[in-house]
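User: Fold this one for me? It's Response regulator receiver protein.
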Amino acid sequence: MDDSDPFANPYRMPTAARPLLGLTILVVEDSRYACEALRLMCLRSGARIRRADCLASAHRHLQIYRPSVLIVDLGLPDGSGSALIEDMAEANPRIGVILGMSGDDFTEAVAISAGADGFLAKPIISLAAFQNAILNRLPPEWQPAGPRIVPDEVIRPDPMAYHDDIAHAAEILGEGTRGETLDYVAQFLGGVARSAEDHALADAAEQLALAREHGLPAAAKAARVAGLVQDRLTRREAI
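Assistant: Here's what I get for Response regulator receiver protein.
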């Protein structure tokens, strides 16, 4: 396994309490809320985390170092994460573990077909599930020796990270409502809102996505999404 992170310490070995110690995980994800959840999971597991918020940024990271684990969201602002998964699955040397990630269940097959070793379904809240998704696919020499502590812990990111995602969506909507913009905002907000258990916004984003998918008028649904986004920004500012 090639972990050529220049800051890596090759002598740090995993332990029962920190089973991912010594690994570098590159997370390619545009949501601050999802990244905060993964950051906390890596912190509790002993792994180092690097973040890229788009495909272009991920490629810049990969020109500098080769992580032990690559986790790629399927819906990114500059394209599908499946393209990066396919490239990295065919690279030599190959990254040790490649996982796809999405809030849409149907994309699991897309990730696996592109060459991913596994899939993380959002919202990612279980520390044990996160660790197992990686450990079950690591070579034996990278496994912690002896019995392993299985943490029964639910990870809850800082709500401020959700506010950052809402502000990001508001900024994009402020630049226009072209078809591609609406498609991205619907996908982005749908996943983020479901993770944050914001059911009203998740439902509005899903309705917008369905309207776009079926070629139906979407102006009213886009306006509803934009209104809910502004409402959440206003409420946060009031606090």
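One thing worth pointing out: The mean pLDDT is 90.
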